[in-house]
Every structure is written in C-alpha cells, then in structure tokens.
Amino acid sequence: MVLATFAAVVPEGGRSLSSLLEFSPGAMIWTFIAFFVALPVMWKFVYGPITKALEERDRKVEDSIAAAEVARKQAEAQMSAAKAELQKAQADGKRMVEEAMARAERQAAEAVRIADERAKAELQKARDTIAAEKRQAMQEIKAMAVELTIRATGKLLQHEVDAGKNRPLVEQFVATADKGGR
After folding, report:
1. How far are the Cα atoms of 109, 119, 142, 180 from residue 170, in angstroms, in the given order?
2. Is residue 22 part of a domain?
3. Domains contained in the chain, number
4. How far apart are CA 20 and CA 41, in angstroms?
5. Which residue has the higher pLDDT, 130 or 165?
6. pLDDT tens digit string along 63-73?
7. What are phi and psi of 16, to 5 degrees?
8. Could you tell me which of 127, 147, 146 has the C-alpha nearest to residue 135?
9. What's the farthest any 2 CA atoms get from each other in the chain?
10. CA–CA gap between residue 85 and residue 82 (Å, rounded)
11. Residue 164: inside a domain, yes or no?
C-alpha cells in the first residue's frame, strides 16, 4: 500500500520507483558536493548551537551535582554539629541533675542535723526544766518536812515550840538526813 501511494507521487515521465534506487555516479557527486557545501552552514547554525546547548546542559548538571555534594557535606556538618550540641546538652542536663541531687541531699542532711540539734536542745531544756522543778519540789518538801517536824515536836512535847529558834536546827537535821539518804 505504501508503494502504491509512493508510485502515485512519482511523476509520470516514465520513471518508476526503482529508478530512485539505481546507482548514478553524477547524482552521487552532486550529493557529496551539496553535503560538503551545506556542512559548514549546518555546523554553524545547527550543530554548533545544539553542541553548545548540550555542553551548557552538561555543565549545569555538573554544577548541580557539585552544589548538591556541597549541600550534602554542609548538611552532614550541621548534623554532626547538632549531634554534638545534643550530646553537650544531655551532658549538661545530666550534670545539672546530679548537682541538684547532691544539693538536695546536702540540704536534707543539713535539715536532719538542724532538727536533731533542735530535738537535743528541746530535750535538754525539758531535762533542765524537770530538774529545776524537782529541786523546787524538793525544797518545798523539805520546808514542809521542817514545818511538820516542828509541829509534831510541839505536839509531842505538848507545848509550843519556838519555830524561829528551832527552825535552823531542824533544817540542818533534814539536810543531814537528805545527804545520808542518798
């Protein structure tokens, strides 16, 4: 079908399609002459711009690859810097936590020490108060014993005993009895 269409295009001058495929030295020479005359023009206006465009595209691709490599290296450097900062921040955080724990332990120990000292002071104060009250109670008991002794002596002797005169004698006796009882 293609041949029939091509045959219809071929002029009627009696030449057939096969005449195009026949070897003709003159046509070959003219074809080479036309090719070599057209070659510099084609080189200048067709191949030259195409070659320049391809070289420019290759250069842009190489530049893009180089820029991508530089960007990758910068990203790696930033990534390693970020990792280093993260490690530093983690180390600082750990150190701060350890310092805070140590500070809290010191404060707790100080609070325990202060509470212990206060408890000891309160205990000593209570002991001192008890001792003072005991001494006061003992003095009151001694005074009552002296008074009772003077009254009992007066009742035993059935007459009035001079408390002012005999009080130092009875107090001395109670004090001597107290020392001997201990």
Report:
1. 57, 43, 10, 15
2. no
3. 1
4. 27
5. 130
6. 999 999 999 99
7. -105, 180
8. 127
9. 192
10. 5
11. yes
Contact 162, 169 (CB under 8 A): no
Structure tokens at 137: 């109670």
**C-alpha angle 163-140-126 in degrees, rounded to nearest 5:** 165
Q: Is 18 domain-assigned?
A: no
Return phi, psi of residue 87, to 5°.
-65, -40
Higher-pLDDT residue of 152 and 5 is 152
For 25-80, how does the pLDDT look when each residue is reduced to its tens digit (9 = 90+)?
Answer: 888 899 999 999 998 988 888 888 899 999 999 999 999 999 999 999 999 999 99
What span, in angstroms and rounded, lies between the C-alpha atoms of 51 and 34?
A: 23
Taking residue 57's Cβ as centre, other Cβ atoms within 10 Å add up to 10
Nearby residues of 88 by Cβ (< 8 Å), 6 or more positions away: none
Q: Is pLDDT at 3 greater than 90 in this prediction?
A: no
Q: What is the pLDDT of residue 171?
A: 75
Q: What's the rounded Cα separation, in Å, for the pair 170 and 164?
A: 11
Distance CA 91, CA 36 (A): 78
Is residue 64, in this structure, part of any structural domain at all?
Answer: yes
Average pLDDT, the chain: 84
For residue 86, pLDDT over 90 is answered with yes
